[in-house]
Amino acid sequence: MTLSAGGRVGLAGAAVVGVAFGMARYGYGLTLPGIRQDLGLSELVLGLISSATFAGYLAGLLLAGPLAARHGSRAPTTVGGICGALGGVIVTLAQSPWLLALGVILAGSAGGWVWAPYSDIVTRSVPLQQRPRTLAIITTGTSGGLVLLGGLAVLAALGSWRLVWAGIAIAAVVAAVVNLRLVPRNRPDRRPEKSAGTSSLAKALRVPAAYSVVYFAVAVIYFTYAADILDSGPLLAAAVPALYAAIGLSGMVGIATGAVAQRVGTSRVAALCLVTVGAALALLGLASDSLAAMAVSACIFGVGYMMGSAVLAVWTAELVPDRAGTAFTGCLVVGAFSSVAAPALAGAVIPGLGLGPLLVLTAAVSLLGGMALMPYRSLRGRTA
């Protein structure tokens, strides 16, 4: 069967983003208990390394644009695959905190290299009517990556946490090959950016950027400490891989983000996603000894997380269709700063506050952010 342009780009993008985000970027949180036991690192050091992974992600975001301008939008996605594979190998072999940090930084940078360029790839390669669905499919690839990560966690429970990172390295190579086969090589855009449009771009994106700050901060706290809090509780060891698999499976609904946003508005979807993530964090912090509560937390987090990231791609393309990649990158950069700060801050306050209360406090931030965003109407909604 011959795939359409949207199908080819969507499949390749889902594979690459799935590995970069669903596996390489969040593999650290999943393997955190094993890393702590094996390398004997303090909470502060573990928190700083977690923040460093998102610093790598931020570096990838900032460097992807100049690379795409010189060599086309597919080039950063190839570099991201290489970083994911190399980082996975280094973490697999790491025997010191320095090598561990280097590996997770490289692996974490993969998401920054690959995500935003797909907005430009979709804009150039996919017909207009297929773009919202294709963007949602690409973003929802993270769900598939999380399901695979949960499967690797089962192997890790039988052997070592290093098996997870070996699997990440292999998956990154496979995804990179698929990307090279299915995504056309776009020529770089030689048109100069209009500096006069910078202020108008910032004005158009002020609400999505504020959403990014809250959304990425609360999501990274969930992923960083979900496995940790389950591992320290009375639940079975299988609860951790099951949690990641449940997040991935429930997150598949993110494919419908484009259609839902057209019905109720992108800003309303974003607000509901923050509320949903807040509820998931509250359950994680208050009822970590209940298997049923953890299952509900994982499922509703999967929905809020995947639709929350997909709606940002749709939202920025809707507000600034002629500069979709630049707009999306701007919001991701803003979110990356909060992703860097959140784990470091959490690692500093956990010894005094406790992990459970920290999760509840983070839940309150997410809920308040969703409530504040709820009255807002996007430009499309006001026009309609």
Give a nutshell description of this structure:
This protein is mainly α and 384 residues long. Helix content is 82%, strand content 0%. The chain is built from 17 helices and no strands.
* Alpha carbon gap, first and last residue: 39 Å
Structural class call reads mainly alpha
- Alpha plus pi helix count: 17
User: SSE order in H/E notation?
Assistant: HHHHHHHHHHHHHHHHH
Radius of gyration of CA atoms, rounded to a whole number = 19 Å
Average residue-wise pLDDT: 84
Shape field = globular
Number-wise, the strands total 0
- Helix content percent band: over 70%
Main pleated-sheet profile: none
CATH architecture: Up-down Bundle
Low-confidence stretches: 379-384
CATH superfamily: MFS general substrate transporter like domains
Strand content: under 5%
- Whole-number count of domains: 1
CATH topology-level fold name: Growth Hormone, Chain: A
CATH top level class name:
Mainly Alpha
Protein name: MFS transporter
Keywords: Cell membrane, Membrane, Transmembrane, Transmembrane helix
InterPro entries: MFS, MFS_dom, MFS_Efflux_Transporters, MFS_trans_sf
Domain Major facilitator superfamily (MFS) profile: 1-381
